[in-house]
Structures are given as structure tokens and as C-alpha cells.
Write a structure and sequence with these properties.
alpha/beta; 6-stranded mixed sheet
Length: 253
């Protein structure tokens, strides 16, 4: 009889994840035994003050950096102990990334940028899915443009489409609206939200902006490398209120 595997209930999981930079006087504990999991089909925002460990958590969970201790899993795959090469393959095949800097190749068209990761991987493009993604981010008329012919907001849409094109298990976005005006930023956040609600994708976004976090289904708050709170169905007002509480609690003067 074929064995039935339990369904994966978490798209990504950290357990006791710890990251220490430096040693001696310059030792910094950027992540202090963080345990958190991100559910499939959910849009999670990671928030916290500057230096609280947001980017480090994302980098260690997305296989962009090595943790010092603990476990980080994507689906059922444990990242700790994987070789550089295996991590590269996992990132390429299972993850999508959107960064503050759009990271597009200037010599390629928008469409070539979008399909580049799949082309490199030798993966066949699922045309129906690609059309949906391109439709969702509203790029249909701009596919033959090069990045220099596109506004910042349009370039970030290309980056979102590139992240989604391979139908990844999870999309990690690090301050995706950090370089955009508020209107373009709102559009990008709307696309990320639509990719979860309409396309069933899973998105984890690092942000320090309560407005951005208001687009998520859940917010996880970090302070000093630890998860200190979380909020479901956030609004900018409830996020701001929660942040003020931490700031008040942490103030020493
Ligand atoms: P956030 O994204 O919340 O601003 P980070 O994850 O970038 O926070 O940083 C968490 C802590 O780790 C900070 O104290 C930061 O200075 C430190 N840190 C981050 N990257 C490095 C590094 N490459 N070398 C040394 N310390 C680092």
C-alpha cells in the first residue's frame, strides 16, 4: 500500500533559530532562539525596530545566510546542513524574492527578466500561470520595455512577477516598498496581497511600515532578536498601537 504523507502545514518554519555575528567585544546576537512558522496561503509581515533582526530572520529562513544554531525549514526541507549548492538550488526552485532594490538586469526586457530564473533553471514556463501573474501585476503593455524605460513602481512590479513566475512555495519580500513613493508602494502591496488571495501564494514580508503591514494577514513583531508579539488581521492603526506599546516598554528615560 502506498504510504500517505501528512500534508505540509507550514510553508516555512524556524525552531530555536539563532544567529550570532562576530565574537568577543563585537559579538551581536541578531536572532535569539526564534521559533515561528509561516502558513501556506498566508501573507505575513515581520515588523520591529531597526536592528531587531528582521532581515537576519528572513535571510536565515530563505537560505541566504547560515544560522548559528537551531533549525530552518522550507516545507519539509531542513536548510541547516545543506551545501551552498543545494541551497542555491532550493532558492531557485522553491523560493521567490523581492528586495528593496529591484535587482533587474538592465540589458534584458521586462519579460526576459521575469522568466530569467526559470530559463537559468531550464524549467518550462507555465504560460497560463505566467499570463495570470503578468495580468495581476498589470504589466501586459510593458513586457518589451527595458528597466531604464520603466518607473520605479513598474520595475518593482517586474520584480514581483519574477518572484511569482515559478510558482514558488514561498515569496520573501524585504522592504519591497522602501524605494517607492506611497502610491507605487500601495500598488506593490496590493499585488502581493492579490498573489496570496487570488493566486494562493505564500508571502513573508519584512517591513518597518505599519501601512505596509496592514496589507498582511498576520504580523509578527521582533525586538532584540526575539519574537515579542503577533497580531492577526492587522490594520495600520492596530499595528501602530502595538508598536507604541513596545517602544514605551523599552524606553529607559
Ligand atoms: P533589521 O533588519 O531588523 O534592521 P538586522 O537583521 O539587519 O535588523 O540586524 C540585526 C542585528 O544584527 C543588528 O544589531 C545588526 O547590527 C547586526 N548585524 C546584521 N548583519 C550583520 C553583519 N553582517 N555583521 C555584524 N552584525 C550584523
Amino acid at each position: 500500500m502506498p504510504m500517505t504523507l501528512a500534508p505540509v502545514r507550514s510553508a516555512a518554519t524556524a525552531t530555536g533559530l539563532t544567529k550570532v555575528y562576530g565574537s568577543g567585544a563585537t559579538r551581536v546576537v541578531a536572532l535569539d532562539e526564534v521559533s515561528v512558522s509561516f502558513r501556506p496561503g498566508e501573507f505575513t509581515a515581520i515588523m520591529g525596530p531597526s536592528g531587531s533582526g528582521k532581515s537576519t530572520l528572513m535571510h536565515c529562513m530563505a537560505g541566504l545566510d547560515y544560522a548559528t544554531a537551531g533549525s530552518a525549514r522550507i516545507g519539509d526541507t531542513e536548510l541547516v546542513g545543506l551545501s551552498d549548492r543545494a541551497l542555491t538550488r532550493l532558492r531557485r526552485d522553491q523560493l521567490g524574492f523581492v528586495f528593496q532594490a529591484f535587482n533587474l538586469l538592465p540589458q534584458l526586457t521586462a519579460l526576459q527578466n521575469i522568466t530569467l530564473p526559470m530559463d537559468i533553471a531550464g524549467r518550462k514556463v507555465d504560460q497560463a500561470w505566467l499570463d495570470r501573474v503578468i495580468g495581476t501585476v498589470g504589466l501586459s503593455g510593458r513586457l518589451s520595455h527595458r528597466p531604464s524605460q520603466l518607473s520605479g513602481g513598474q520595475q518593482q512590479r517586474v520584480a514581483c512577477a519574477r518572484a511569482l513566475a515559478g510558482r514558488p512555495a514561498i515569496v520573501f519580500a524585504d522592504e519591497p516598498t522602501g524605494n517607492l513613493d506611497s502610491r507605487s508602494g500601495a500598488e506593490i502591496l496590493g499585488f502581493l496581497q492579490n498573489s496570496v488571495r487570488e493566486l494562493g501564494q505564500t508571502v513573508v514580508m519584512v517591513t518597518h511600515d505599519p501601512m505596509a503591514a496592514g496589507y498582511a494577514d498576520r504580523v509578527v513583531f521582533l525586538a532584540d532578536g526575539r519574537i515579542v508579539d503577533e497580531l492577526s488581521l492587522p490594520t495600520p492603526a492596530t499595528v501602530l498601537d502595538r508598536m507604541r506599546r513596545f517602544e514605551g516598554a523599552g524606553r529607559t528615560t
